[in-house]
């Protein structure tokens, strides 16, 4: 039997688990007049009564005039649940977190017209006359006053939504009409659960780091300077892993209020806005009368959350400051030489990637910013790569000193977000001038990589020394570890370039799909740990050979980029003895993968990834991706894919292993 649940703005379906036979009896039981049935002749359809009453002998048939005046039967059903907390009286949370009692649970007495019966664990009683009934419960050991929701339904099909009712000292009184079924969910609350406190969160937005150093300021400086226009932010309160309440606040002076929280360790988690780094949180504690209990204290922040030890009667007021993360721009070139037989007539980026696979060392590139000046020339390294890091947003000119014997190059560029795995990046062709130069715009926090192909001027000239295949392993020497905020969408210039060759946009990759697959995907993270202080960018570094420890204490969290507010991310760990963490049955889409507990001074990177659906042979970076300062990296999963990535981490020398 399904009853519609509506409480405090939320409606859902709560299935009350009536046995099918009990439901039938509740509706169809024959009600006899008191004179015929007699006191004690009631008929029970469920529960465990303390004694079994025997109905009087009745005739097989009643006179027609008597049958026509018999009232419709009524029924009462009560189901008891054991709850870990009161959950603010929210029926959705109570239904989701409380456990149905068995026949060994609470004791109930029901009194009504010519009726009295005792039940254990639950009540399912039909064949009742209309009238006023009293339901009395005896509180289970270790419990306090219950929370009760009741609803009514009629044989006609009309039904009321469950509403919370008041129970006085274990007694509930109800006027039961003829032909009405009363159903109540009786939630037993543990003793001490109403020993509660309150946490208030006052939200502020700070200006960019370049304008105000929020992390170096005290709470008074934060209060004075962090008055940027606010936008709605959602906070969630949890206890022992159970979500208690969710609040959305537009920002100061309107705060998120978590009242009636059971005492103990409370987690307050923010749905961190895009483009913001770790928040700064200062909290003070008073009692319900406003008397100070504890001075203003800076709370320990773990990425997007704090833990607070709440005691009885505490009113905790937290000023929560969001700080825009520092952002930078990376400009990279992967230099590739094409075979002498190849001309300019190859079809698109994919065609060049298939035909041209040799990266080239020793080729000079010059970068000029229209307003930021010349950051200098660089020469491609042994992996055919040059990189300029921590650049400002600007209009840039990139020029190659073309080797002798080669004509005008062919160039494809793609925008990307630095912490993303870039499994689906799109490369657009850029017009190359007579000076072997291209130009493009880059926004703050946006990065661009250009695949730069040299084509022989006469299909037979000298070829610069080719050193390594462009198979996704050019070293990103000098590339700064990306900040977590690079996950935010770039500004109005995102995905565009000025002049001809414009239209590049973030998101795509040269990962070429294999035959189409369907169904859920899976992700496996193979964890490796390097020695403290290990420099994986050193010329003689070989992480695969050097970093052989398979840690069993790595915890990773997987959260969909478009996950609904309040949804708890999935977690997995490497405690399987093999150093691997696996997420099975994952819906295809974009995800943020975060290493829980990675310190800001530690370093992590994804060396390589393998898929049974996609081909990453042409991926232009080594390592495959660097990990943001907050321990996160963005990746995508396609239907039916099994994606396996090798995760390496280097613990800073001064901290030891985490």
Number of strands: 44
Shape: elongated
Which structural class is indicated by helix and strand composition?
mainly beta
Share in β-strands: 35-45%
Poorly predicted runs: 1-46, 48-59, 419-423, 460-515
Task: Describe what you observe in this structure.
With 658 residues, the chain is mainly beta. The chain folds into 4 domains: 2-190, no CATH class; 196-322, Immunoglobulin-like, CATH 2.60.40; 329-487, Immunoglobulin-like (Sandwich); 512-650, Immunoglobulin-like. Helix content is 7%, strand content 43%. The protein has 7 helices and 44 strands. The strands form 10 sheets. Strands 23, 24, 27, 29, 30, 32 and 33 form a 7-stranded mixed beta sheet that branches. Strand 18 and strand 19 form a beta hairpin. The longest helix is centred in the first third of the chain and has 9 residues, at 20-28. The chain is elongated, with a radius of gyration of 34 Å. The protein starts with a strand and ends in an 8-residue tail after the last strand. 39% of the residues are buried. The model is unreliable at 1-46, 48-59, 419-423 and 460-515 (pLDDT under 50). InterPro entries: Ig-like_fold. Residues 463-523 are annotated as: Disordered. Residues 463-497 have a biased composition (Low complexity).
